[in-house]
Amino acid sequence: MADTSMLWPAFAMAGLTLAVWLRMYVERIGQMKRLRVHPQKVASQRDMLAQLPDTRAADNFRNLFELPVLFYLALVVATLTGQTGPVSLTLAWAFVALRALHSLIHCSYNRVMHRFAAYAAGGAVLWLLWGWLAWGLLK
User: Does the keyword Magnesium apply (predicted)?
Assistant: First the structure.
């Protein structure tokens, strides 16, 4: 049986995405009720931005489908090529931790430079993971 250790960071990222999705849902419904916004008035992204002032969770939810797409693929590549050792696993968990930090900042106080630092660090870890996997295939 193949080593499935690299799949646990994927489950963690999926859990983070679920948590942000639930927060987005609760915030949107709450804002719509408080502001008495009819659902049809937020039928498009443009309408949503015009009607609802707090888009932090929605913005973060979209972010979770940008760089993390490459992360999920890296985990599949690592698993299929047998590169599930401590370096790959550590980089994978570091990416998850940095994305969780990014989401926490984004969905709460949203200080851009703090959020950017977490984003940039997570991106660097992701590119290191891809470099490590490429190096492993070349060996």
Answer: no
Question: Is residue 62 a contact partner of residue 112, using CB atoms and an 8 Å limit?
Answer: no
In this structure, are residues 3 and 82 in contact, taking their beta carbons and an 8 Å threshold? yes
Query: Taking the complete model, does pTM exceed 0.90, yes or no?
Result: yes
CATH of 7-138, one of 1.20.1110.10, 1.20.120.550, 1.10.10.10, 3.40.1190.20: 1.20.120.550
Are 115 and 105 a contacting pair, CB within 8 Å? yes
* Better-predicted residue by pLDDT, 45 or 119: 119
Mean pLDDT of 25-44: 93
Cα four-point dihedral sign 113, 115, 120, 121 = positive
Residue appearing with tokens 């015009």:
50
Rounded to 10 degrees, the C-alpha dihedral 110/51/60/19 comes to: 100
